[in-house]
Design brief:
about 90% helix
Length: about 50
């Protein structure tokens, strides 16, 4: 049986899932940029990537 309550539960689940995926992507990109900056300070390699 499909109810309005069930629809809200599904929407809430999808929003939660989307937020957690976004959070994972944000953390991954932050780590990526931090690693690039770290390599930059070690090697001065950054200008070659620009």
């Amino acid at each position: 049986m499909f109810t309005i309550d069930g629809a809200f539960n599904i929407i809430g689940l999808r929003v939660e899932l989307g937020l957690s995926i976004n959070w994972i992507l944000v953390r991954a990109s932050v780590r990526f940029w931090a690693a690039l900056l770290y390599c930059d300070t070690l090697t001065g390699y950054w200008p070659a990537l620009m």
